[in-house]
Amino acid sequence: MKLKGQVHKYGANVDTDVIIPARYLNVSDPLELAKHCMEDIDAQFVKKMKPGDIIVADTNFGCGSSREHAPLSIKSAGVSCVIAKTFARIFFRNAINIGLPLLECVECVEKTKNGDTLEVDLAAGKILNLSTGLVFTAKPYPDFMSELIKAGGLINYTKKRLA
Amino acid sequence: MMTLAEKILAAHSGKKKVIAGEFINCKVDLVMANDVTAPIAINEFRKLGVKVFNPKKIVFVPDHFTPNKDINSAEQVKMIREFARETGVGFFEMGRVGIEHVLLPDKGIVLPGDVVIGADSHTCTYGAIGAFSTGMGSTDIGSAMATGDIWMKVPHTIKFVFRGKLNKWVSGKDLILYTIGQIGVDGALYASMEFAGEAIENLSMSGRFTIANMAIEAGAKAGLFKVDKKTLEYLAPRAKRKFKVYEPDADAEYSQIFEWDASKIEPMVAFPHLPSNTKPISKVGEVRIDQSVIGSCTNGRLEDLQIAAKIFKGKKVHPEVRCIILPGTQEIYLEAMKLGLVETFVKAGAVFSTPTCGPCLGGHMGILAKGERAISTTNRNFVGRMGSPKSEVYLANPAIAAASAIAGRIISPEDL
Q1: Which of B135, B185, B186 is opposite residue A66, by nearest beta carbon?
Q2: CA–CA distance, B398 with B416 (Å, rounded to integer)
Q3: From residue B61, how far is each of A123, B201, B208 by CA, in Å?
Q4: Which residues of chain A are under the pLDDT cut of 50?
């Protein structure tokens, strides 16, 4: 599957409180959560982003709370994938479990600017920057994680196990 | 050979040995969620179309917005309550509920050697009593509610050794803030932190819970302590089932070892907007505050309240400061009343609340307006954590938070 979108770039340690502030955690409807995605780091994010757009960030993206509302809000806002140097571990699990694609790639983060257009081949882990022509390869997933992704997330994987 | 984390994970995955980085399927002794995370977990669980694996090993603790702050949060708890009644899983009703990470060990529900997963990032708190406990998301919890197991990547272990004796007013909070200040908010990413040394051995259980609680603020999966005499004394009136004590091997492999002299550590303050942005109290300078919060899963235990009360005794909260004190459980609330702590707080001009996570995550019970600044014994000072994205949170121990409430600025009790 190929994803294509414009880059919204952020720094290190983007925490789950700024991705989806706790004042919105009294609901769990993904579409409600999507309205406030990234609100406390970039109040205009939801207005300016287009479906398919890509979040690019430095290290430790998604640190803090275990709230699955964070990747849910990003996914349901229409973001196609998140590329970062590293991810916080609970956010990483949550995103894989709900089917929000994540890619780890230090070089891509360093050489990609806000507003660039990226094309991502998820299966191959290839990222093409259409604005600069540069090509990057993301860190491959361990086998087990690939299996989870292929199954379509944890609930589908568990369904198969229980069948 | 194996670290404490590896020992517990090996025993729960039917293996003689596990190696850092290995993917395992791990049996769990307790699955937990709160009022924010349980609704999604229940919805995901229902998609599986099976019964819960064991209702006695699943518990819901609605503590974040309790007592329900609005219609939406009331609807969330109603849905959890109805699910609990239908399936027989554990549920703590208001009036009995406490802050999950204070409540569950205090009730003897979590014991040493257990593997606990919770849909709350501070689930790592139970490492203080030698349990492998870690935070996950709602979908992980929903799946484990059905199967009683979960996939894990075995974390590598970083050892932290604190030599020497603690200075006056220095607590577990200061050791963990110091640690995070040294290694950063991702300094222990994916790792298990293991704490040892003379200062740790001499530390109260309260202090150990505080340290384990904030392991996540260094990116860790767990923060573990060896079980010792103090742990067993804590457990004696609480444990109602047998438990197994695991010890790290003498030749366990650590990815890194840090050794620090605890006698050189001062009370620490984490400045906005990261827990790693720490300064010793002597270097804080003039920082005026509007609010002081004492409590939470980090510092809402009886000992924390006792330290605060000692400082508030006969003193008044600064006229321009609001002070909010939140006990971790109803039992701690009761003890605080019996010991006269509540009277001290109220006479000082502080608010004494029933247990709730409340202001820690900007939920309710003391939200900050634009431009306001709080000192807090909680665990996070991210942008907007306690309210307005234009407000600020400074993290510290209960003694500093109490002294600062009186002085109106961040100060050590020594300088009051």
Answers
A1: B135
A2: 15
A3: 40, 31, 22
A4: none
Give the three-class secondary structure for B34: strand
Across the interface, do B383 and A94 touch by the CB < 8 Å criterion? Answer: no
* Closest chain B residue by Cα to residue A30: B40
Do B139 and A27 lie within an 8 Å CB cutoff? no
The dihedrals phi and psi of B153, each to the nearest 5 degrees, come to: -95, 125
The nearest alpha carbon in chain A to B214 belongs to A64
CB-based contacts of A52: which residues, under 8 Å, 6+ apart?
A3, A4, A5, A78, A80
pTM, entire model = 0.98
pLDDT of residue A107: 98
3-state DSSP call for residue B56? helix
Cα A37 to Cα B320: distance, rounded to the nearest angstrom: 35
Taking the CB of residue B25, how many other CB atoms lie within 10 A of it?
A: 14
Q: Name the one residue in this structure whose structure tokens are 């942005």.
A: B277
Q: What is the pLDDT of residues B314-341, one digit of tens each?
A: 999 999 999 999 999 999 999 999 999 9
Task: Judge whether B408 is closer than 8 Å to chain A, CB to CB.
Answer: no
Instruction: Report in angstroms the alpha-carbon separations of B413 from B9, B152, B336, B350, B397.
Output: 43, 44, 21, 17, 11
Q: Which stretches does DSSP call E strand in B226-290?
A: 256-261, 268-270, 278-280
Distances (CA, A) of B377 to B20, B86, B101, B387: 33, 38, 15, 16
CB-based contact B140 A159, cutoff 8 Å: no
Mind listing the pLDDT tens digit for each residue in B262-306? Answer: 999 999 999 999 999 999 999 999 999 999 999 999 999 999 999
Q: What is the DSSP letter of B271?
A: P
- Do B227 and B7 contact (CB within 8 A), yes or no? no
CA distance, residue B28 to nearest chain A CA (Å): 16
What count of other Cβ atoms lies within 10 Å of the Cβ of residue B126? 31
- The predicted-structure confidence for B95-128, as pLDDT tens digits, reads as follows 999 999 999 999 999 999 999 999 999 999 999 9
pLDDT tier for residue B224 given thresholds of 50, 70 and 90: very high
